[in-house]
């Protein structure tokens, strides 16, 4: 154990909310509004958190990919944790991304999250050196026992180069303190295989990251979604999740069309690869939350791109009473 981790080790904040198991519902991967590359826009962040809570979401995931965590300084990540905890209090559980290339910094972030009042941690594979399935499983076996909070795995192969094989997910589910998987691969057959792999763990949450298939997968037993678009219109994704749960096909079809308008009109503007994140942050700024400033290496959308996104969110009825 690192000296810094051992020296700072404390019990989790007693005001942290206990998560239901399995974790269910819509848990937005929260954006991080910025004033510049290393300054949190605290006012906009508070506004965003209140916007999400008012939309009826079931939890909040900070410092994930959508939150630009890998591009933020450690100081700023700690500020985001503290601000989220002070603003949200015990109204919703907070999950914190702890993914890092450094094992020790992963532990340090986890410890800080626990002290700040988080309810759980979220982890992707370390994303620089190439890992095989056995190496990643060994990493989890060494890491999970040291973590102060429940851990949820995050399959994001576009960024990490590793797809967590269903057999690896099954083995990980046998490690104490691991309680779920967020899958952002967009591969429905893979998700189904993982569901089958953990069928003996009724407390193990299976969560969808790609919102275009949220309703279909919830209808097949997914426990919820970690949908970026819920930053823009949280009520839309909550309503879609609830409609899928009750098998209300008419409402699902109606809301799915709006989700696809957002997907096509917001996430596909500009350079592929960065379009989703830049487009979403721009869209949220256009409804009055933040200014669209990106962490390096990305830059904000151009005025022409902002206009395209403005038309898309207008067509989706975001910010209106159209639904």
Low-confidence stretches: 1-8
Secondary-structure element series: HEEEHEHEHEHEHHEHEHEHHHH
Mean of residue pLDDT?
93
Fraction in helix:
40-55%
Class by SSE composition: alpha/beta
| Secondary structure: number of strands | 10
Tell me about this structure.
The chain is α/β, with parallel strands linked by helices and 323 residues long. The protein is built from 13 helices and ten strands. The protein has helices spanning 3-8, 42-54, 74-88, 103-116, 133-143, 157-160, 166-173, 188-197, 214-219, 234-245, 249-266, 275-286, 303-316, and strands spanning 25-26, 34-36, 39-40, 60-62, 94-97, 120-123, 151-155, 178-183, 205-208, 224-225. It has an eight-stranded parallel β-sheet with strand order 1-10-9-8-7-6-5-4. It has a two-stranded antiparallel ribbon with strand order 2-3. Strand 2 (34-36) and strand 3 (39-40) form a beta hairpin. It is globular and about 50 Å long. Residues 1-8 have low confidence and may be disordered.
List the helices and strands and how they pair.
Blueprint: H1 3-8, E1 25-26, E2 34-36, E3 39-40, H2 42-54, E4 60-62, H3 74-88, E5 94-97, H4 103-116, E6 120-123, H5 133-143, E7 151-155, H6 157-160, H7 166-173, E8 178-183, H8 188-197, E9 205-208, H9 214-219, E10 224-225, H10 234-245, H11 249-266, H12 275-286, H13 303-316
Parallel strand pairs: 1-10, 4-5, 5-6, 6-7, 7-8, 8-9, 9-10
Antiparallel strand pairs: 2-3
Helix pairs in contact: 2-3, 3-4, 7-8, 10-11, 11-13, 12-13
């Amino acid at each position: 154990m690192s000296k810094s981790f051992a020296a700072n080790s404390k019990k989790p904040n007693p005001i942290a909310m206990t998560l239901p198991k399995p974790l269910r519902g819509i848990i937005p991967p929260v954006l991080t509004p910025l004033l510049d590359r290393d300054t949190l826009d605290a006012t906009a962040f508070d506004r965003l958190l209140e916007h999400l809570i008012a939309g009826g979401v079931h939890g909040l995931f900070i410092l994930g990919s959508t939150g630009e965590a890998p591009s933020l300084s450690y100081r700023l990540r700690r500020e985001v944790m503290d601000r989220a905890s002070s603003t949200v209090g015990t109204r919703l559980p907070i999950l914190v991304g702890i993914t890092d290339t450094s094992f020790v910094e992963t532990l340090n972030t986890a410890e800080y999250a626990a002290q700040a009042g988080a309810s759980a941690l979220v982890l992707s594979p370390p994303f620089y050196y190439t890992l095989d399935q056995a190496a990643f499983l060994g990493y989890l076996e060494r890491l999970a026992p040291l973590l102060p909070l429940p851990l949820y795995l995050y399959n994001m192969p576009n960024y990490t180069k590793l797809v967590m094989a269903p057999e690896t997910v099954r083995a990980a589910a046998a490690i104490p303190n691991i309680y779920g998987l967020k899958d952002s691969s967009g591969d429905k057959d893979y998700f189904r295989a993982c569901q089958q792999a953990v069928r003996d763990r009724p407390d193990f949450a299976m969560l969808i990251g790609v919102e275009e298939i949220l309703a279909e997968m919830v209808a097949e037993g997914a426990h919820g979604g970690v949908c970026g678009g819920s930053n823009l219109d949280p009520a839309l994704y909550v309503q879609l999740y609830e409609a899928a749960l009750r098998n209300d096909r008419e409402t699902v079809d109606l809301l799915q069309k709006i989700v696809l308008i957002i997907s096509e009109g917001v996430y596909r503007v500009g350079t592929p690869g960065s379009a989703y994140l830049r487009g979403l942050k721009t869209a949220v700024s256009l409804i009055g939350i933040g200014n669209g400033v990106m962490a390096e290496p990305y830059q904000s959308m151009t005025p022409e791109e902002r206009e395209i996104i403005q038309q898309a969110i207008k067509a989706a009825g975001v910010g209106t009473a159209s639904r």
